[in-house]
Specification:
The chain contains two helices and ten strands, in the order βββββαββββαβ. It is of the alpha+beta class. One of its GO terms (molecular function) is guanyl-nucleotide exchange factor activity.
Length: 179
């Protein structure tokens, strides 16, 4: 079981619970101002939180599939599969939108290899309607790779548990972030 901390994102405008031992990718490489990127220390699992312009699809299932397909395109995925799309209601009483959650997988070629990696994708979409913003959280969990970054079944279960906790604890504290 991971030790969890409440992590400030985007200068504290958003907070969410994450494993305490994550590596902030901005400490090792440049990360755009519209993203927060974290890496697991002992695998190739990564978390990306991204502030995006609201996409055209109005229906929640179409909107999250648009973002999932966009990630697949950016990764040059050879195949994609959506396992499920659900809504996780925000029942805390704050103004953070409910999460639209997609679980899927992508086969992604890495570094010009012929055999693609099998990556599980856990994605959450928080639509900030009045600001025309889509906040997208993506957990990339490689389950089969040619390098040593893949996780086994226990690592996959832990990443999914971490994702679930991240999504249910995700809270927007300052909407001025989207000015």
């Amino acid at each position: 079981m991971s030790s969890l901390v409440t992590r400030p994102l985007f200068g504290g405008a958003i907070v969410a619970e994450t494993p305490a031992n994550l590596i902030d990718a901005s400490d090792v490489r440049q990360v755009p101002d519209t993203q927060e990127v974290f890496l697991y220390p002992n695998s190739s699992v990564s978390i990306i939180v991204e502030i995006l312009q609201r996409v055209e699809p109005v229906h929640f299932e179409d909107a999250i599939k648009f973002h999932f397909d966009s990630v697949a395109h950016d990764n040059s995925a050879q195949s994609v599969l959506v396992h499920s799309v659900t809504v996780v209601l925000n029942d805390r009483g704050d103004d953070t939108p409910s999460a639209i959650v997609l679980r899927g997988s992508q086969r992604v070629p890495k570094f010009n290899r012929t055999t693609p990696d099998d990556v599980r994708i856990f994605m959450a979409l928080f639509r900030v309607e009045h600001k025309e913003i889509d906040l997208v959280v993506t957990f990339n969990v490689p389950v089969m790779t040619l390098d040593r970054g893949a996780v086994g079944s226990e690592g996959l279960e832990q990443a999914e548990s971490d994702f679930n906790k991240f999504v249910t604890s995700f809270r927007i504290c300052d909407y001025g972030l989207f000015a």
